[in-house]
Every structure is written in structure tokens, then in C-alpha cells.
């Protein structure tokens, strides 16, 4: 009992309690368990001890990645004995990490281990309906992360280090403000051993180089370096909150909405707004700086430029900036190569549904005496009405395909003469990245374009007062047009 009292009064436990209360990491009154990521190292061992002493219901989780031969099995045996000693349930799992990396292209062994580990933690979180998953990162880990991020170039988000809480409390770091000296002192008093990863001494690994080579130099410069950095981290966290508040108050809530260039020029920190709004595009800073510089130039209303990011592209077009992710670009490419022969017209009355890379196509036939056709002006550009009996009598060979042929023309309903599709696409403000994927309804027998989906319909086979049956072809898109609901973003009052 006296040892327990001594450990409860240790500075490590006081620091953990203070961190939990300050950041509201856990609910003391809850009976839900806390999952402890337990490797067997000093940090996770002290974390398990501390949370157990503070009265939380703990379940330990250990991953054996089989990356260090017998040492990996030694770690598993150690955590098994530790959990038996403390009376804590243990969930163990073994992974073929090398095999996973080999069968997943572009995934390193380190990335594979991280993916497998967090998938395991997430599964336990759901199965136990846990409060949180507790990770063992401490103050020195955070200082090292800041230095690594600084060496690579980082903004406020990169320099404020790891957060005490993320994913709305799913993952927590109760030791994040704890210096490692308290951890080792606690374990010594508790007479608790721990395991050491032999790869921690390998300075060819970036984090180890920072820990063993770079950090000691900063300690010579300032013996209280960790505390000084911790103070800076807290300041940067507050600055990040202010920045995020400004950005949320300034940018449109929908990240797919175009940004108006004229509006962007008037903002206090346009580069920060670009970073946030187009975060999914993941552009280099130099690319965004060039984009911003281009936005200051006076150009024609229809001028166009394209900026590449790791996660997609940003297009500057008609006074707006529009982001398109790599996932969307892939779907557009699939649509560009898409070609679909429509079923025989005689089968349409039974209603036809067809798949498309950008959505789906539905064909329905109606009797005019029972269901009067809607007025053309009430239809969206993605609905096409046709006199079913006229069309059936003409026996066309209908095909849906992409508008990749720049020489195609159409005779638009309500307009005189024939118009080139390329001009119609430009006039309709269709983004250059999406023009080639715009769907056409073609009559292969005559070569006539009957419908440029989303833009215009031809005058062929249109409804008349004598129409008895009419068909409606509807293109239901799951990819919206960024200009459909293009509204001017709100601004911050100044």
C-alpha cells in the first residue's frame, strides 16, 4: 500500500492527471475502457502504470510486427507478463508486415506497420466501445517532431507538434507534456523493467539522428531546451486555433466551391486561405505562390491556367479557382474512355437503367394521355425528351460516348443553324479538365449528335402536339458541376 501511495504521489502521475484534466482527455466517471498502445518500451509501460493508478479501466493492445526477429517475440512475452502482473487484459496480434508491404505497391515497411497498427487499434476501439486509445508520446517526442518538421519546411500546423487529442478524442496522448526523466524515475521507483528497441540506436533513421546527434547540440545551447520548445508549442497551438477560426469564418463551408479571384485578392492572408481550401490538392508552396502571383495580373475573362498538386489540380478559369482531386480526375478519365451502346428502342417501355463512371442513366417511356410531358424550360440540362414513336420509326443506332472529337457539331433546340460542340462547351463554362468527359448521345447511322449532356439538346425527334408517347433520358450525375452553385464567398468584417 505504501508503494502505491508513493507512486500515486510521483510527479509523473501528477503530470498525467494535469494533462488529462487540462485537455479533457478522459472522463473519470466513465466505466468505458481505455485502450493502451503497449509496445513494452519505457513510455508505454509508464503510461499503462499511470492510467491504472489513476483508476481508469485499461485494456492493453500489443502488435508483433515480426520486424526484429527474436527481439519482437521478446517484447510480446514481456508485455504478456506485465499485463498479468498488473491485472490488465491484453489484446495481442501478429502481422506479416513484410508480406503486406510486398503486396501493396508503393507501401514501405514503415507505412505498412503504421497501417496495420492503427487498423488493429480502430477495431479494438469499436469492439470495446472504448473511451479512447492512449498513445505513449511524451514531451521529447514532440520536440523531435517539431525539429523534423522544421527541417522539411512547415507552417503553424507542422510546428505546433503532436496534439494531446485528435479525431475528437479517439486518440489521446496523456504523456505529451511529460519529460522523459520523470518516466524513467517513476519506473525505477516502481522497480518496473521495460524493453528497449535495438533500432533506436541506429542514427541512419531520421528520428534517431535528431535524438542522438542534433538534440544534444540544442541542450548545450540551452539546458532547458525542451521546456522552451514546449512553451513555443503552446503558443503555436493558440495561433493555430486563431488561424483556423479566421479561415472557417472566411472560406466557403463547401471545399468544392470555387474561389472567386477578385474576392481572394482582398483577403488578409490569401496564401493561407489557398492552403486550407485546396488542402486535398496538396500543392507545393511555390506552386501556390505562383498561382497567387498570376491572380494579381489583369487577364481576359476566359483566360485559363492549370496548377498541379500531388492530390489533384487547381484550375484558374473565368475569374475563379477550382480544385479537382486525383480521385475525380480518375473518374473523368474513365468517362473520357467510356462508350455505351443503348439497348434496342423497343425495350425502353420496360424502363432501362445503365451505369456510367460519373453516375447513372435512366430511360423511361410515358403515354402522353396519362402523363403529359413537362415543359422543356423546366428540365435540367441533364434530361432529354424525345418523341418515342418518331425515334422508333427512324431506327437509329444510339450510343453514349465522350465528346473527344473536336469536329462534332449539333443543331441546338431553340437556336439557328448548327454549332460546334467545342464552342458550346466553352460558352457553357464547362471546365477544360471536364470537357473531354462530357457525354454525347450520338446516332451512329447518321453521325448526328442528339444531346450534349448538361449543355444542350438537338431539335431532332422533339415532341409535337401529335406526340402520343414520349421518352425521357436522365443522366444522374454523382459529380457536380462546380459552377452550378457558384456563389460569392462571405468575407470577414473589418
What does this structure look like?
The structure is a single chain. The chain is an alpha+beta fold. The chain has helices at 2-8, 11-23, 42-53, 70-86, 97-103, 109-128, 139-152, 156-159, 180-189, 206-221, 225-250, 261-265, 270-277, 285-295, 326-336, 388-394, 421-427, 432-435; strands at residues 34-37, 58-64, 90-94, 132-134, 165-166, 171-172, 259-260, 304-309, 312-317, 320-325, 339-341, 352-356, 359-367, 383-387, 398-402, 409-410, 419-420, 439-443, 448-452, 456-457, 469-477. The strands form five sheets. A six-stranded mixed beta sheet has the order 3-2-1-4-6-5, with helices on both faces. Strands 11-15-18-19-20 form a five-stranded antiparallel beta sheet, with no helix packed on it. Strands 7-10-9-8 form a four-stranded antiparallel beta sheet. A hairpin with an 8-residue loop joins strand 16 (409-410) and strand 17 (419-420). Helix 3 packs across helix 9 (180-189). The model is unreliable at 487-494 (pLDDT under 50).
Adjacency order of strands in the biggest sheet: 3-2-1-4-6-5
Radius of gyration: 31 Å
Proportion of helical residues: 40-55%
- Please report the distance between the alpha carbons of the first and last residues: 62 Å
Tally the beta strands. Answer: 21
Strand content: 15-25%
Low-confidence stretches: 487-494
Mean pLDDT: 90
- What is the count of DSSP helices, taking H or I runs of 4+ residues? 18
Biggest sheet descriptor: 6 strands, mixed
Query: Structural class, from helix and strand content?
Result: alpha+beta
Shape: elongated
Amino acid at each position: 500500500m505504501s508503494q502505491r501511495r508513493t507512486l500515486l504521489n510521483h510527479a509523473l502521475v501528477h503530470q498525467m492527471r494535469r494533462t488529462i484534466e487540462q485537455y479533457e482527455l478522459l472522463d473519470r466517471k466513465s466505466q468505458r475502457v481505455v485502450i493502451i498502445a503497449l509496445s513494452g518500451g519505457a513510455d508505454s509501460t509508464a503510461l499503462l502504470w499511470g492510467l491504472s493508478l489513476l483508476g481508469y479501466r485499461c485494456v492493453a493492445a500489443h502488435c508483433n510486427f515480426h520486424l526484429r526477429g527474436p527481439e519482437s517475440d521478446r517484447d510480446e512475452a514481456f508485455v504478456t507478463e506485465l499485463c498479468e502482473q498488473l491485472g490488465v487484459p491484453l489484446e495481442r496480434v501478429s502481422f506479416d508486415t513484410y508480406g503486406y508491404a510486398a503486396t501493396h505497391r508503393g507501401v514501405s515497411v514503415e507505412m505498412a506497420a503504421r497501417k496495420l497498427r492503427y487498423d488493429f487499434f480502430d477495431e479494438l476501439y469499436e469492439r470495446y466501445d472504448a473511451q479512447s486509445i492512449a498513445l505513449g508520446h511524451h514531451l521529447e517526442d514532440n520536440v523531435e517532431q517539431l525539429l523534423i518538421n522544421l527541417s522539411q519546411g512547415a507552417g503553424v500546423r507542422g510546428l505546433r507538434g503532436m496534439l494531446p487529442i485528435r479525431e475528437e478524442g479517439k486518440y489521446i496522448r496523456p504523456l505529451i507534456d511529460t519529460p522523459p526523466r520523470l518516466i524513467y524515475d517513476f519506473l525505477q521507483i516502481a522497480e518496473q523493467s521495460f524493453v528497449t528497441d535495438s533500432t533506436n540506436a541506429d542514427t541512419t533513421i531520421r528520428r534517431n539522428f535528431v535524438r542522438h546527434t542534433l538534440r544534444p547540440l540544442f541542450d548545450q545551447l540551452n539546458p532547458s531546451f525542451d521546456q522552451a520548445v514546449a512553451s513555443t508549442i503552446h503558443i503555436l497551438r493558440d495561433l493555430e486555433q486563431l488561424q483556423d477560426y479566421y479561415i472557417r469564418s472566411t472560406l466557403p463551408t463547401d471545399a468544392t466551391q470555387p474561389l472567386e479571384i477578385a474576392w481572394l485578392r482582398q483577403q488578409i492572408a490569401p496564401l493561407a486561405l489557398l492552403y486550407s481550401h485546396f488542402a486535398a490538392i496538396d500543392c507545393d508552396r511555390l506552386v501556390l505562390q505562383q498561382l497567387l502571383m498570376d491572380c494579381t495580373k489583369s487577364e481576359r475573362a476566359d483566360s485559363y491556367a492549370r496548377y498541379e498538386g500531388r492530390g489533384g489540380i487547381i484550375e484558374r478559369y473565368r475569374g475563379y479557382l477550382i480544385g479537382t482531386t486525383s480521385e475525380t480526375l480518375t473518374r473523368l478519365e474513365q468517362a473520357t474512355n467510356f462508350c455505351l451502346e443503348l439497348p434496342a428502342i423497343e425495350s425502353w417501355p420496360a424502363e432501362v437503367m445503365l451505369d456510367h463512371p460519373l453516375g447513372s442513366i435512366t430511360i423511361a417511356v410515358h403515354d402522353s394521355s396519362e402523363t403529359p410531358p413537362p415543359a422543356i424550360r423546366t428540365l435540367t440540362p441533364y434530361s432529354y425528351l424525345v418523341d418515342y414513336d418518331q425515334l422508333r420509326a427512324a431506327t437509329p443506332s444510339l450510343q453514349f460516348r465522350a465528346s473527344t472529337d473536336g469536329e462534332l457539331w449539333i443543331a441546338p433546340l431553340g437556336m439557328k443553324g448548327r454549332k460546334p460542340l467545342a464552342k458550346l462547351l466553352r460558352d457553357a463554362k464547362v471546365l477544360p479538365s471536364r470537357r473531354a468527359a462530357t457525354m454525347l448521345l450520338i446516332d451512329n447511322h447518321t453521325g448526328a449528335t442528339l444531346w450534349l449532356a448538361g449543355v444542350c439538346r438537338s431539335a431532332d425527334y422533339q415532341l409535337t402536339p401529335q406526340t402520343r408517347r414520349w421518352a425521357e433520358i436522365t443522366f444522374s450525375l454523382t459529380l457536380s458541376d462546380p459552377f452550378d452553385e457558384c456563389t460569392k464567398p462571405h468575407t470577414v468584417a473589418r
